[in-house]
Amino acid sequence: MKKSITLSIIICCFVSMASLSYAEQCVDAVRALVPWTSNWTGNANEFPDIGRGHGLTVNNNPSGCTENDPCVLVYHPNYGSGIDSTNGHVVVLYNDSSPYSIQDSNGICGGYREECTRANINLDNVSIIHPCIASVLTSGISKNDYVSKESWNFYKINASSSYSQVKVEMTNLSNDVDLYVRKGSKPSINSYDCRPYSGGTTSETCTEDNSGSNLWHIGVQGFKSGNYTIKATLSGVNNSGDNIITLSSGVSKSGSVSKKAWKYYKISASSAHSQVKVEMTNLSNDVDLYVRKGSKPSTNSYDCRPYSGGTTSETCTEDNSGSNLWYIGVQGFKAGSYSIKAILNSTNTNNNSNASPGDICSSNSVYDCVMTCVNASIASNWTGDNYCDNGAYAYEGVYYNLRCPAFNNDGGDCN
C-alpha cells in the first residue's frame, strides 16, 4: 500500500458583508498581524459578527489558539477594567491558557507582545474568533474553492526532509485571484517566498526547493471574487544524513534522480591517496555532477562542477592531501539515471605509469586491483578469507579491491 502524502487545507466560507462604521487603532493592528482579517472594517465590538459572517467559529473558548494559528480576542464593551465601553477592544491571542500571550496596539498591553495577565482575562466577557479549520487532501489532488474580493483562503502542506520540492498550482480561475506561498508562516501581501502575479484569469504556479522538514503555507487572495482550483505536489527525493551512499574505490553504482532533486555519495580518502577521480557515465538525461571536500556540495558550493550538459559523461579529478571525506552530489536538471564511480589513486601511481596490480608501491605496500597503494600484509591476510574484497571493505580508511588476476580474484572468494 502506498504511503499517503497529506495536504492540510484551510477552508473558509467568506461571504460579502457591507462595510461597517469605522476602524480604531486596535483594529488596524489586528488587521496587520492576522492576514485573514485584513479586509475587515468596523470597530472591535463588530468583529465577532464579521467573523461569523466569514464562516469562522466564534466563542469564548481559547482552545486551539496557537503561535502558528493565532486567534482574535474581542473584549466586550461591558468588560470593564478600562476597556472602551462603546467599542470594546480587540487583540491577537497566541496561546490557549493563562498567562495569555497577546499583542495589541494600545490599552491592555500597551502595543507590545508580552505575557499579559491583566484581570487574568475574564473569558465570560470576551469573544474569541478562531482561524479557519484545516482539512486534509492527498498531495497531487486538486481542490476547487472560492474566495471573496479582498479576502484570503489559506492552505498548508507539511514537507518532510524526504522531499526536495513543493509545487503549487492554481488553475481554472474565474476571475483575478492571486497565489502566495511562504515557508514556515502564512503569507501576506508583503511577506511571501513566491508570488507569480500573473493577473487576470491566468494560471499561477510556484515551485519551491525544500530542504529539511518544513510547513509550507499557501494563500489565495481575491483581488476580485472568484473560483479557482488549487493543488500542491511534493516531489523529488533528498538523500541526507545516514542516507548518503558510501562508494568503494573503483566500484561503479547505478543511480537515478528526480528533476531538481539531489542524490549524495561519499568516499573516504586517506593520506596514502593523492587523487580522487569521480566519473558519471551512462546518463539517460541531463543530470549534473558536483564534488566537494569535507561537506555536501550545493549549486553554489563545490570544488568541481563539470557542467557538460545533456547526456555527456562528466568527470571530476581532485588532488587529495591528508585524510579527507569527499562528497559527491548528483542533481537532476531533468529526471534521469546514471552510473557513478569514484577512484582513489595513490601517491606513487602517477610516478610509475608502468605499475600493475600486485606490484610494490612503497615499503610493505602493493597496488591493489584499482591501483590503490594498500598494506601488503593486510592484502595477503584478506586474500582467500571467504570474503570477496571488491572495494567494499576498508582497513584504516583505505578500501581494498583484490578482485583481479593479480590476486587470483581474492583467492577465489570473488569467483
Polypeptide structure, described:
It is built from four helices and 28 strands. The protein has 415 residues and is mainly beta. It has four domains: 6-129; 139-183 and 200-235, Sandwich (Jelly Rolls); 241-346, Jelly Rolls; 360-411, no CATH class. A six-stranded antiparallel beta sheet has the order 2-7-3-4-5-6, covered by helices on one side. The protein is elongated. Mean pLDDT is 80; it is low at 1-23.
Q: Mean pLDDT, as a whole number? A: 80
Share of helix, binned: under 10%
Number of domains: 4
Structural class: mainly beta
Q: How many helical elements?
A: 4
The portion of residues forming beta strands comes to 35-45%
Strand order of the largest sheet: 2-7-3-4-5-6
Quick structural summary:
This protein has 415 residues and is mostly beta strands.
Question: Keyphrases for this structure?
Answer:
mainly beta; Jelly Rolls; 4 domains; six-stranded antiparallel sheet; five-stranded antiparallel sheet; elongated
Write the layout of secondary structure elements.
Layout: E1 6-11, H1 25-33, H2 47-53, E2 58-59, E3 71-75, E4 89-93, E5 100-103, E6 114-116, E7 126-129, E8 133-138, E9 143-147, E10 152-159, E11 165-171, E12 177-183, E13 204-209, E14 214-222, E15 226-235, E16 245-246, E17 253-257, E18 262-269, E19 273-281, E20 287-293, E21 314-319, E22 324-332, E23 336-346, E24 360-362, E25 365-367, E26 373-375, H3 376-382, E27 390-395, E28 398-401, H4 408-411
Parallel strand pairs: 16-18
Antiparallel strand pairs: 1-8, 1-10, 2-7, 3-4, 3-7, 4-5, 5-6, 9-15, 10-14, 11-13, 11-15, 12-14, 17-23, 18-22, 19-21, 19-23, 20-22, 24-25, 25-26, 27-28
